Amino acid sequence: MSNVVLKNLYKSYDGKKNIIDGVNLEIKDKEFIVLVGSSGCGKSTLLRLISGLEDITSGEILIDDKIVNNVHPKDRDIAFVFQSYALYPHMTVYENIAFGLKMRKFKKEDIATKVQEAAKALNLEELLDRKPKQLSGGQRQRVALGRAIVRNPKVFLMDEPLSNLDANLRVQMRSEIKRLHKKLQTTFVYVTHDQTEALTMGDRIVVLDKGIIQQVGTPDEIYNKPNNKFVAGFIGQMNFIETVVFDNKFKLNELEVELPEYLKGKFDNGASLTIGIRAEKMNAGELELQVSIDIQEMTGSERNIYFKINNSNCCAKIPIQEFETGNYLIRFTKNDLYFFDKNTQKTLAE
User: Fold this and answer.
1) Which residues contact 143 (CB under 8 A, 6 or more apart)?
2) What is the pLDDT of residues 68-90, one digit of tens each?
3) Nearest to 158 by CA among 188, 187, 203
4) Continuous segment of H or E residues that includes residue 116
């Protein structure tokens, strides 16, 4: 078993504001879980608390059902892959991968076997005699992964390992890390600010904001059933439109739309309401709204158009086609709309 459990976890510096504010989370054995959030939300701090590189203020951390609050990082049986690769520049690829095993007094023949196995898994066999300065960014990242693999840890911790790579290489490395997880059958805890990485890599996603977990769920749950406005806006491209309720209806520009049945009778006339609709959901449906295009962008596979609804800035992703800059008829369905409480920011759902 290599589960990780966080119980009522707090972290503050000098008794000031909590960086981690009451986190409770159970990471299952062999699960690939992704911690995602904007810069400063506490995701990297949470990873460092699990690893033991930072001390917790209060709460408990359990690895393999054992409390590790006071266990030294080297004794927690975890491997940490850093954003900066953290390779020794004077050592060869072989020596970098073998370093941890050497420190643990493994036999030379055992080290050689483990390094060769890791090199084969990561396509590094022909690079073992090179120094880090002779490697590309993707190769360096694979060496950092190799150094972690040979230890055969209970848990892999990865702190934005792909952020220094170019876009194409990130896509390639995402696939490699997923294949690695499938092969190793070990628990992975992965930190990123990139929503695409979160959606494509994680068995479950943990969305953090200001040290507080906003939602935990599968990629499908996070994307299609966000708990609140923050999650809806952070994952995917959601348009938020401010409107006012009247007679169980609301207006989007000149278009009048009825509230769904589960919300009828719950708002006084004149009550404020926030509507959400994803950019890719504005090109098909029974509801039609003429908008005036401010800006358009070609992205190759689709076209982004920008316009205003109720003075709120909106974007729609539409198929590639020729049309006059100016007016455009967007189409959507009532089922594509999200509703958020103006005060609590929570999603209003059945």
Assistant:
1) 85, 87, 93, 96, 97, 122, 124, 127, 132, 135
2) 999 999 889 898 888 777 888 99
3) 188
4) helix 108-121
| The two three-digit tokens of residue 172, written as one number | 């390639």
Following DSSP, what letter does each residue of 268-324 receive, concatenated?
-TT-EEEEEEEGGGSBSSSEEEEEE-SEEEE-SS-EEEEEEETTEEEEEEE-S----
Quote the distance between the C-alpha of residue 329 and its chain's center.
33
Q: Tokens standing for 295?
A: 């800006």
DSSP conformation class of 38: S
Residue type, position 269, single letter: N
What is the tally of helices (H) and strands (E) in the chain?
8, 20
Among 46, 239, 62, CA closest to 157: 46
Q: What is the tens place of the pLDDT at every residue in 181-205?
A: 998 889 999 999 999 999 999 999 9
pTM (two decimals):
0.90
Of the candidates 102, 97, 100, the residue with the CA atom closest to the CA atom of residue 132? 97
E-state strands within the chain: 4-12, 18-27, 32-36, 58-63, 66-67, 78-81, 155-159, 187-192, 204-209, 212-217, 238-246, 249-252, 255-258, 272-278, 287-292, 295-298, 303-309, 312-318, 327-332, 338-340
As a whole number of angstroms, the distance between CA 56 and CA 161 comes to 24
Gyration radius of the chain's alpha carbons: 24
Q: Which residues contact 167 (CB under 8 A, 6 or more apart)?
A: none
Please give the single-letter amino acid code of residue 87: L
